[in-house]
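Allow me, if you will, to draw on your knowledge of protein folds for a short while. I have a record of one protein: its chain in single-letter code and its fold written as discrete structure tokens. Could you please explain, in whatever detail you think fit, how the structure tokens follow from the sequence? The record follows directly beneath this note:
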Amino acid sequence: MRFYLFISFFCFFLFQNIPYASSLDFKICYEDQEQPPYYNGTGIEVPSHNQGVYMEILHKVSSDLGLKLSPVRRPWKRCLKLLEQGRVDGVMGVSFLAERKRIGRYPQKNGALDLNARLAMKSYSIFRMSDHPFIWNGKLSDIKGKLVGVPLGYSIVPRLARTGVKVSEHANTEQLFDMLKHGRVEAVVTLEQVGDFLLEAKSNRFKNIIKLEPIIEQKAYYLMIGHGFFKNNSKISQDIWRLISVYRPEISASYGIKKSR
């Protein structure tokens, strides 16, 4: 009898201290337009190497927890739709909007957003042609009534629209910069890091586009987990967010990402 009790207790403690079953698939979606250094490459194919900050963090987290990480890339709004439909378990790089809580869960601590569990902190900036006359003093009223291009589905769109900005949504920042060059929009609002990358990587093509200071706003970006996955795997979900907070600082620093403003 004592022998069987010993075996029972041994098995209990053994399985309490191993990673989650490796058969558990964790399918995540992220945008098919690159945002260096957060994720690299364009298109639905996931790069085999140099995947960027987000994927490096998630690979570490999945390895620690024994999860099978299955990334897919789709247009941004499609990723959110797949999460809503339960066809993926998570979406990387989701900023907070109250209405998004119906499609998934953000990391929380004591009933509030857990900022420490973010994947990144990013800034929105405004870009214009160097010879455009309008002045930017950091207030959205400065661009009220102007036709401004914004990447499709980005969270800043409702705020711009409420201020009276004429928003024109298109697939990605590169396309919007081309529209800006040809006078089809008066300015572009996009993530600062993406705009900076394009101005440096394609300096000849976009040589007359400038970034204005100050930034519009700074936002935290999270791994949003679907309601279905969270319901069935709440402990795993909490561990995923906890480990993101562990690995993010070191990995971000290795990519030269500066601390938040």
Summary: The radius of gyration is 21 Å. DSSP finds eight helices and eleven strands in the chain.
